[in-house]
Amino acid sequence: MIDQISDHILQELSRNGRISNIELAEKVGLSPSACLRRVQELERRGVIAGYRARIDRGARGIGFVAYATVGLNAHTKAAQQAFERAMETAPEVVECHNITGAVEYLLRIEVADLPAYKAFHTDVIGTLPQVNAITSYVVMGSPKDARA
What we know:
By secondary structure, this protein is α+β, with helices and mostly antiparallel strands. Helix content is 37%, strand content 20%. It starts with a helix and ends in a 10-residue tail after the last strand.
């Protein structure tokens, strides 16, 4: 169970994973040593699974983001595993979620531009034998994106 202070620590770390322990302790109302013990305990328990850098996609040459839903032609474990293996090796796919509903997967795809997306759509997803349907949703803006 996470108490209110640990939850506050997690909120602050999710905003700034590089915050100093002293500054974090001030924000959550603990002494630096008590704060450090709590952070270490959260790490030990796996509540804090790691730290990430937020990368400017434009600086990496990523100018096109789309979400795609993917329906499979067979509802078998083998079809799902084959699709998931293909997505694990596709650097364009930064998120792959197995979802409920009319389709099996929701992907977040990040590439340089529309021609790069078309190539990925055609040459990667479009060649997978278990794929039955692909629907693309192009991101035009992201007024809120709280992912790390």
